[in-house]
Amino acid sequence: MSTGILRKGVVMKKAAIVSILFVLIAGCTSSLDPVRTANRRNLLKLSVGMTKEQAIATMGHKSGGGSDGEPTVNSPYKSEILQGKDKTFEVLYYYTDVKNAIYIANPATIPDDELTPLIFDNGKLIGWGADFLEDIKKDKIGDR
């Protein structure tokens, strides 16, 4: 056999392996990926002092999921009110991370560690992120 034929065979095997990998990777994508990506990108556009309406407009209303065992994700995904000793905070949670791509719960839900909280005081954005929320809970909410 000539080296030209051997090289062609090696190249074809590599091309086949790469093609298979692309198919496998494409099969692992989720309908939640665009929501997560958009929300992460939009976090970069936030600034402290925005009104709640401005922050919601900045984050957008991307939604997805709801099929093949995936949870339905709206933006924001959920909200809560935190009542402190002398303050009330509103928290909006956006889906931004993936820790487990397989959701087994029925109905499927996104765990808190895959969400980024936006924290508002009197309708103004005062910060975001899990660490910021924990600081607020320690400093302003305290033991109830």
What do these coordinates show?
The strands form two sheets. Strands 3-4-5-6 form a four-stranded antiparallel sheet, sandwiched between helices. The chain has a two-stranded antiparallel sheet with strand order 1-2. The termini are far apart. The chain has four helices and six strands; from the N terminus they run αααββββββα. The model is unreliable at 21-27 (pLDDT under 50). Strand 3 and strand 4 (88-95) form a beta hairpin. 21% of the residues are buried. With 144 residues, the chain is α+β, with helices and mostly antiparallel strands. It folds into two domains: 1-30; 31-141, no CATH class. The radius of gyration is 22 Å and the shape is elongated.
Quick structural overview:
By secondary structure, this protein is an alpha+beta fold. Helix content is 39%, strand content 21%. It has 4 helices and 6 strands, in the order αααββββββα.
